[in-house]
Amino acid sequence: MAQRVGRISPFNITALALGMAFLYLPIVILIIYSFNASRLVTVWGGWSLRWYHEFFNDRAMLDAAWMSLRVAAVSATIATLLGTLAAVGLVRGERFKGRALFSGMLYAPLVMPEVISGLSLLLLFVALNAERGFWTVTIAHTTLTMCFVTVVVQSRLASLDRSLEEAAMDLGCNPVQAFLRVTLPLILPAIAAGWMLAFTLSLDDVVIASFTTGPGSATLPIRIYSEVRLGVKPEINAICTMVIALIAVLIVIASLASKLSSSQGESAAPP
């Protein structure tokens, strides 16, 4: 029976192959054609790094890429700080009034369409007469990504043994010291994973940024979108390939950080 259950049928292998091809074949084709020497994206002209060189000589694209990296780094840092504090409040403050309302409002961006979020933020900035630019996009991305950080950190905090902090307080630490010396090192990999997830989401966003950006503050996804409407250039393939590589590296690091956090929690758990 165990051999029969563990065996993979040809139908399952075929379905898995088709699913993987549907998800990743377009990305593989894009990466291959980023090394195409031809100016026509549908005609193969041999292997070349020409379009990567074109990107690094394109001042407008470089400015947009630098803007995206700045927005992603700042918004991810702020979202990680606020999301970690929110996770601590939700896990450690089980009985405070308004917890259900706070939790619902915190997780609302997870299910709310980005168009609605972007439009509401635009109306807010217009009502405040705020000049749209770097900080409006950063605030919008912080609002979007904070809930994801909260989910990651909250799941890690919920699995920790509360008696570790209690033992530290019995030995003379106050609650803040117990958290900083005992709990924070244990959840640090989860915080790092949340930061990288927030960074990736901010780097990829185009819908909310299109509502909140202003003149001279276009991010890389918006710049790519405006270029693609006039026709796909081989340079776009090179840019997308570099973004895919960066996101893949961040995903691997975040996965390793999550596994490290889980292994630390298991080793710290009482027998």
UniProtKB/TrEMBL annotation:
It comes from Bradyrhizobium australiense. It is found in: Cell membrane. The keyword Membrane applies. GO terms for biological process: transmembrane transport. GO terms for cellular component: plasma membrane. This is ABC transporter permease. Residues 65-257 form the ABC transmembrane type-1 domain. The keyword Transport applies. The chain crosses the membrane at residues 12-35, 71-93, 105-128, 134-157, 178-198, 236-257. InterPro entries: Bact_Polyamine_Transport, MetI-like, MetI-like_sf. Belongs to the binding-protein-dependent transport system permease family. CysTW subfamily. It is a multi-pass membrane protein. Keywords: Cell membrane, Membrane, Transmembrane, Transmembrane helix, Transport.
